[in-house]
Each structure stands twice: as C-alpha cells, then as structure tokens.
C-alpha cells in the first residue's frame, strides 16, 4: 500500500499545470457533517499535486448568502500550507447564492495559457439559475466538474457540467464519497496534463478546443486541421501562432462527429500530434420554448428562447382571443426575448404565436395558450379626515363578494423628519382605521384583496393638522 501511494504521488506530482478553483457549498442547506466530509475529501483529492505557478494552483470560493473567497489561486505553493488552510475553513450557513459566487469565479479564472477547472462541491439543493454563468465560464475555457450528494437537482447539474458526464459529474452518498477520489483525480489530471487537446465548449455549430501551450510566439506555430469523420466537406486547415492555447471552430454542422488534430511546429524539437473527436449538439432553432408570466386582467408577458442573434432577423408575436378575437401583431428585433401584451380582455383565453424569421429565410413558430385574470372590483370609495396633529381617520367602501381583506399603505414620519413607507393588512370586516405620525403630504392608499387577486385601489393625499 505504501509503495502504491508513493508511485501515485510520484506520477501526479509533476504531471500537470493548471488552475483549480474549488466552489464549495457552505450554505445552511448543507449539514455540518456533510460540510466536514466534503472538506476532508477535497484535502485527500488534492494531496498528491505539486502546487504553485508552473504546477497546479488551487483557490477556494465558498457559496453562502454572499460569496467568500477563502483563499486565491496564488496563495498556496506547498501542500503543508494548503492542507492547513483547508482544515481552518468554517461553515458559513445562510442562503445558497451560487450565481453570485459564479460571477466571482469568472473574475478569478482568467489566467491565459493554462487549463482551468471549476470543481463544484454541492448538495445540489436549489442551485439557482446557474446555466448562463456556467456557459460563460465554459466559453472562457473553464472545465466544470461537479460532485453532488444524492439530494441534488441532477437535471440542472447535467446541463452545466463539461462533458463527458461519466467522469465529470458524480452524484454520491456523502458517507461513500471516498470511493470516487481516484476517478475524479484522474479526470482532473486528464484536463491539466501537459499534452492533450480538449473540447471545453460545444454548441450545435461550434466547438472550443484547448491545449497546454508548449511553444512561444517566437519559437514556432501550430498546425490545426479538422473534418467530419464522414468527410462530407473538404478538410479545414488553420495555422495558429505559437502563443495560442485555444481556438474556436465555427460553421460546423449540427449533430455531426468531427476529428480535430493539432501539431506543434518548431525548429528546436519534434512534438507529438494531438487529436480529439467530438460530436456537435443537435440543432436548436429559436423559438424552442415559449412561456407566459405576469398575467393580469388586461396583460400577459410572453417570453421565448434561445436568443440567436447571429441567426434570427426578427421575431413576430401574434395574439388574439379564442375563439374569434381580432388578431394583433407585434414585431420585435432579434435582441428581444420577451414582450408585454397589453389592452387584453379580462377573463379571456388567448392564442399566442411567436415566430422567428431566420437569416436563411426559414420561419420557425411556436404557439401557447394563456388566460387573463378576471377583472376584480376596484375600491368603491376612500375618504381621509384629519383628526389631530399628523393623524387622519381613513374610511373606505368595497365590493364584498369574495373579499378577503385590505392592504393599506402610507408614509410614516420618523425621527429627524425622515419618512419611511409603511403598510398593514386589515381584515374584510374593517372599513376604517386611524393613522398617526404621518409624513407631510403622505399618500394613503387602500387596495381590496380578493380570493383571486388584488383589486384596483384608491389613493388620497393626507393633509393632517400640524397644530
């Protein structure tokens, strides 16, 4: 066993160069026991690596209500220092604000000419809207690897992880997490090992390739060539400068397998040719999804996606009440992915169709049905009567059927003559109340609350006695 560990240590120590940022879930959704197990696992995972510039740099970013950068990538250049730091990491508790932490990660993982890994350790509970920042990170050349407990939202994690899933995404019981140590370490080594050509980002029409730079701008160049394995088109060739470490291949065909090869050329020595196979994603034409929100008696917001600025000329939204309402049309440019439809009939069902005119002349459309809310009775009457210094008596009347209560809003005067907004919920039996400490010329608003929503309220300006 001692020989095996020594051999592993020897083979890992000087194998790699790259940046590893640990994104550690430290929120309250993670039990203290789970948190300590993740820290212990991380310490063992990283123990064999040689640290510092020219080797592996490690940073730790904690996820909580606000992100906490425990230590940056340049802090630790020895295992002793790193292991001591990991033992001192405390559990933040609080909310799981992963999106805010990912914005910090984007600023940290900017080192050029080295592979970059984001290792996300999480329980996966309520990860938030992480798709966009994760896509941006991968576009920067960052490989996203994920360890999640069995409670995780696997569909979200599956979308944001860097392929292949079988070696980059692990869902494991926290008590058995040690069984994935060697597999995960090997996956990291494959990314940051000296000689490799990796695919770090894929779409239906593009691929980003990355490699560890072994040349300089003045010492040579790279020859790149690629083609589909069926060779349906002529082979593409490019010459890249010696200080390059990544390249984006564009105008690829969707759902097609390609082979790409990269050969460093130098007068000083011979280098191996690096190759990689990859398959582009199936084609997705906008609009692929249409949703509705913000429904009211007279409005509906319709949204669609994905945005494809380079492929779509314009969007058209057609809508009309079912079965025989007048059809109205809104035309929007390709930068828009939502619009608010107004002037609608209350309590009506609408057919809404979003169509995209693509640059190639093809038109793609998708329809949904949505209902406006029933029109709710408005407040019938509102009266304010001054009764004293900064005091008014508020009285109102409302339609009683389905009435649940009232929301009352006003401005209260604080110390030092500052004011703040105040509100109170009153039962349906209430028809008046007295307000004190009103701010000068405060607006007093009363809105009826019905079982199906909020009715239109009325507002008056209070003129209270000052003497």
TrEMBL record:
Location of the VWFA domain: 19-188
Concerning Pfam families, the annotation shows: fn3, VWA
Tell me the InterPro entries matching this sequence. ECM_Assembly_Org, FN3_dom, FN3_sf, Ig-like_fold, VWF_A, vWFA_dom_sf
> Gene Ontology cellular component?
basement membrane
**Location of the Fibronectin type-III domain:** 193-283, 286-375
Q: Which Gene3D superfamilies match?
A: Immunoglobulins (2.60.40.10), von Willebrand factor, type A domain (3.40.50.410)
Identify the keywords attached in UniProt to this record, alphabetized: Basement membrane, Disulfide bond, Extracellular matrix, Phosphoprotein, Repeat, Secreted, Signal
Q: Where located?
A: Secreted, Extracellular space, Extracellular matrix, Basement membrane
SUPFAM superfamilies membership: Fibronectin type III, vWA-like
Give the residue range of the signal peptide: 1-18
Q: What does this protein do?
A: Promotes matrix assembly. Involved in the organization of skeletal muscles and in the formation of neuromuscular junctions.
- Please identify the protein, giving its name as recorded: von Willebrand factor A domain-containing protein 1
Q: What is the species of this protein? A: Seriola lalandi dorsalis
């Amino acid at each position: 066993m001692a020989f095996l560990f020594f051999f592993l240590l020897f083979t890992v120590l000087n194998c790699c160069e790259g940046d590893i940022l640990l994104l550690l879930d430290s929120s309250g959704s993670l039990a203290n026991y789970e948190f300590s197990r993740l820290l212990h696992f991380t310490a063992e995972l990283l123990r064999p690596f040689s640290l510092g510039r020219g080797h592996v740099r490690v940073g730790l970013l904690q996820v909580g209500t606000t992100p906490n950068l425990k230590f940056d990538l340049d802090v630790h250049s020895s295992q002793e220092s790193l292991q001591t730091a990991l033992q001192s990491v405390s559990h933040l508790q609080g909310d799981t604000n992963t999106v805010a932490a990912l914005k910090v990660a984007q600023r940290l993982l900017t080192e050029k000419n080295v592979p970059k890994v984001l290792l996300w350790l999480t329980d996966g509970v309520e990860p938030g809207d992480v798709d966009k920042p994760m896509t941006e990170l991968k576009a920067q050349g960052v490989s996203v690897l994920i360890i999640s407990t069995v409670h995780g939202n696997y569909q979200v994690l599956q979308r944001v992880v860097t392929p292949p899933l079988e070696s980059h995404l692990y869902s494991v019981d926290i008590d058995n997490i040690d069984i994935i140590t060697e597999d995960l370490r090997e996956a990291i080594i494959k990314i940051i090992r000296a000689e490799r050509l990796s695919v770090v980002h894929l779409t239906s029409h593009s691929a980003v390739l990355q490699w560890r730079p072994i040349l300089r701008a003045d010492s040579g160049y790279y020859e790149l060539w690629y083609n589909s394995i069926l060779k349906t088109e002529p082979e593409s060739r490019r010459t890249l400068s010696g200080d390059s470490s990544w390249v984006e291949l564009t105008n690829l065909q969707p759902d097609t397998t390609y082979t790409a090869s990269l050969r460093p050329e130098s007068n000083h020595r011979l280098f191996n040719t690096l190759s990689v196979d990859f398959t582009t994603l199936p084609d997705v034409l906008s609009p692929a999804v249409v949703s509705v929100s913000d429904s009211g008696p007279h409005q509906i917001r319709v949204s669609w996606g994905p945005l494809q600025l380079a492929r779509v000329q314009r969007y058209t939204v057609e809508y009309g009440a079912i079965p025989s309402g007048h059809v109205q049309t809104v035309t929007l440019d390709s930068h828009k992915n939502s619009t608010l439809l107004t002037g609608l009939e209350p309590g009506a069902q609408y057919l809404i169709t979003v169509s995209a005119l693509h640059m190639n002349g093809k038109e793609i459309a998708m329809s949904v049905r949505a209902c406006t809310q029933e029109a709710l009775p408005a407040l019938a009457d509102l009266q304010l009567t001054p009764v004293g210094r900064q005091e008014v008596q508020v009285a109102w009347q409302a339609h009683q059927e389905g009435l649940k209560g009232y929301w009352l809003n006003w401005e209260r005067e604080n110390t030092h003559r500052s004011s703040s907004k105040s509100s109170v919920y009153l039962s349906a039996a209430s028809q008046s109340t007295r307000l004190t400490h009103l701010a000068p010329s405060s607006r007093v608003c009363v809105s009826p609350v019905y079982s199906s929503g909020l009715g239109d309220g009325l507002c008056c300006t209070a003129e209270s006695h000052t003497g």
